[in-house]
Amino acid sequence: xxxxxxxxxxxxxxxxxxxxxxxxxxxxxxxxxxxxxxxxxxxxxxxxxxxxxxxxxxxxxxxxxxxxxxxxxxxxxxxxxxxxxxxxxxxxxxxxxxxxxxxxxxxxxxxxxxxxxxxxxxxxxxxxxxxxxxxxxxxxxxxxxxxxxxxxxxxxxxxxxxxxxxxxxxxxxxxxxxxxxxxxxxxxxxxxxxxxxxxxxxxxxxxxxxxxxxxxxxxxxxxxxxxxxxxxxxxxxxxxxxxxxxxxxxxxxxxxxxxxxxxxxxxxxxxxxxxxxxxxxxxxxxxxxxxxxxxxxxxxxxxxxxxxxxxxxxxxxxxxxxxxxxxxxxxxxxxxxxxxxxxxxxxxxxxxxxxxx
Length: 357
Known about the structure:
By secondary structure, the chain is α/β, with parallel strands linked by helices. It has one domain: Alpha-Beta Barrel (TIM Barrel). The chain has 13 helices and 9 strands. It has helices spanning 43-46, 63-72, 84-87, 97-109, 126-129, 138-152, 178-183, 187-199, 216-231, 253-261, 286-305, 326-330, 347-355, and strands at 51-55, 75-78, 112-120, 157-164, 205-209, 238-241, 244-246, 268-276, 312-317. Strands 1-2-3-4-5-6-8-9 form an 8-stranded parallel beta barrel, surrounded by 4 helices. Strand 7 (244-246), helix 10 and strand 8 (268-276) form a beta-alpha-beta unit. Helix 6 packs across helix 8 (187-199), helix 10 (253-261) packs parallel to helix 11 (286-305) and helix 11 (286-305) runs parallel beside helix 13 (347-355). The protein is globular and about 60 Å long.
């Protein structure tokens, strides 16, 4: 997950540009935090599958947030503190203080931990870029990093995003990266899965990507990559679809996308779900956007619940409270998550739970 904007002429979300005020809600007022509360059961109690949320270590210092997490989910994903940008220091050493705090919270509360993410094209730490291959080979450093990170959380991890966002946005092949340049465009992915399996013999290992709902060609390339990894003997154990979508998503889009992603028979993880109001195109009044958001929440729940039980790995919200969302940081008028700033359930949460009854 990273900052993103939505191009005016296309439906999908671009991942690398943050527009800030340019994405102000067209014709919409800011949310009224004093609105009447919505009645909704705890998210996990409504589901017959694991429910997750992304968190940051600092948020766990807030007792209200910790209680909200414990009441609503059975799995947590570090939002960014297991990514290379945090774990790999400039000198090539590793730091685990924040992910250790998140893992400790998971152990204490009896929650599953989902690791996110081992290899991502968008990050190339200086410690790797400046590696002295006369002292340590790049391939050895790559393996050591994966062994260290996966091995450290072997007792609590329920799965890992091993390769994140590998497919080009236009669906024409894969993204370039430091890892592709040094180890091979396909080979670096196979190695990542094999090293992760070496570090943990049992944990499910995932290929994760975004905009699979909006871009059928990208989705097809994603599935072809998964098939090629399996054919190469990579221990691929599941497919993650981030599902960052907007409130104007066309009805049926999620059912189609999730159904196709499940077509390989692998477990599916809705891995980073949120529904933006600000990225819906065209002027709309806020009540209309919120109604659209609730509809998308319900369709997502129905589409995921329709999968065979063995393929329902988890449904993860990319945060719980609106004020903690990356989309809220990008645009203060957005409100993409199931709970408002105060941690009260919203119409989306109620619609999601009702769809599972």
